[in-house]
Design goal:
Helix 1 crosses helix 9 and helix 9 (268-281) runs antiparallel to helix 10 (286-300). This protein has helices at residues 36-46, 61-72, 116-121, 143-159, 171-174, 180-188, 200-204, 216-229, 268-281, 286-300; strands at residues 4-8, 12-16, 30-34, 51-58, 76-82, 89-94, 100-105, 130-135, 162-166, 192-196, 234-238, 243-248, 251-256. The protein has a domain at 4-10 and 36-84 and 111-190 and 258-311: 3-Layer(aba) Sandwich (UDP-N-acetylmuramoyl-L-alanine:D-glutamate ligase). The protein is built from ten helices and 13 strands. The chain is α/β, with parallel strands linked by helices. Residues 318-329 have low confidence and may be disordered.
Length: 329
């Protein structure tokens, strides 16, 4: 039984211009909060799951904002303050063709300097009943952050906590460094592995990648079977707008993604994961977990922020989506 979720990562300040204005000529820029683990934590809190987010934070105003926003959304926050490094940034720029370009400014940030000693200092409850959620992002920020994530997972396993791992591979953060070994190490220690169709080859080999000739959900099923074939008993594989496929022991289920008017997909994967974890914590069957995950991920796409859309599931799954009356009377 899952009583609480604990996650450790880097909280980011998010800068974005308006939907029709490029950053280079924007008069005003919105400031928000992001970071994969923070997005998951805030969405879980709104879904009624007790959740702790922990991280190394700066002593600047942006860190103060990140911590304030996490707490305001119902997340319990544990931090170690780094007075010498700044808060990391994620910048969204709307291009001339309407697409959003994302850039990271995380090198040398407080969050990237996370250490195993920080993990111990957070005072996390890793007893049975706890689910520890980690991603492939935090560990790629620095050698010490990678050691910290491994240390957290080791402590969780020793304490009898469950572990979930979202590959969440970010090529711009990894650069030319090899990632497969790091992803496989965390996946091997996890009770639940979440990956996109394109990320599964990191865990099982290049031959298991998505085939464009195969429909998305069928790709996801094949990829899930590949993960099960190398020993992962509980897996979720996403296939973007096509949906997702999951295996949990002998249970198998799929979900078709909701059709919505997309504003921004950044954070949608985190919202999907949070929805799945919330369903798991509630004791939902596999199909129920996937439905909640799909709702949460779709909701996130309706807002330009990283997490704001995911905390409001209104208008999804109740006949008021595309094709319905857009006015609530």
């Amino acid at each position: 039984m899952i009583e609480r979720v604990v996650t450790v990562g880097e909280g980011l300040a998010v800068f974005r211009s308006g939907p029709d204005e490029q950053l280079w000529r924007a008069d005003q820029v919105a400031v928000g909060t992001g970071g994969a683990e923070a997005n998951v934590a805030m969405t879980l809190a709104h879904l009624g799951v007790p959740v702790v987010w922990a991280g190394r934070v700066a002593a600047d105003s942006l860190a103060r904002r990140v911590v304030r926003e996490l707490r305001a959304e119902g997340v319990t926050v544990r931090t170690v303050v780094d007075p010498d490094r700044p808060t990391g940034l994620l910048v969204k720029d709307v291009l001339a063709d309407g697409r959003t370009a994302v850039s990271y400014h995380r090198a040398g940030s407080a969050g990237s300097a996370l250490t195993p000693a920080d993990v111990d200092a957070f005072g996390l409850d890793l007893a049975p009943g706890t689910l520890v959620h980690v991603t492939g992002i935090t560990g790629c920020l620095s050698d010490s952050a990678a050691e910290a994530v491994r240390h957290l997972v080791t402590r969780a396993r020793e304490a009898g906590a469950l572990v979930s791992f979202d590959v969440n591979h970010r090529p711009r953060l990894w650069g030319d460094r090899p990632a497969a070994e790091a992803h496989r190490e965390l996946a091997a220690a996890a009770d639940l592995v979440v990956a996109s169709v394109d990320e599964v080859p990191f865990l099982v080999g290049a031959s298991s990648g998505g085939d464009p000739r195969v429909p998305g959900l069928e790709q996801a099923e094949l990829a899930a079977d590949a993960l099960a074939g190398v020993g992962h008993e509980h897996v979720v594989v996403t296939a973007g707008a096509a949906g997702a496929f999951a295996i949990d022991g002998g249970d198998r289920a799929s979900v078709v993604a909701h059709e919505i008017d997309v504003v921004d997909t950044v954070g949608a994967g985190d919202a999907f994961v949070a929805g799945y974890l919330a369903g798991w914590a509630r004791g939902e069957r596999l199909t129920g977990r996937l439905r909640l995950a799909s709702l949460s991920g779709a909701a996130a796409c309706r807002h330009a922020g990283d997490w704001e859309g995911a905390v409001d599931l209104g208008g999804l799954g109740d006949g008021s989506g595309p094709g319905g009356d857009p006015v609530i009377r």
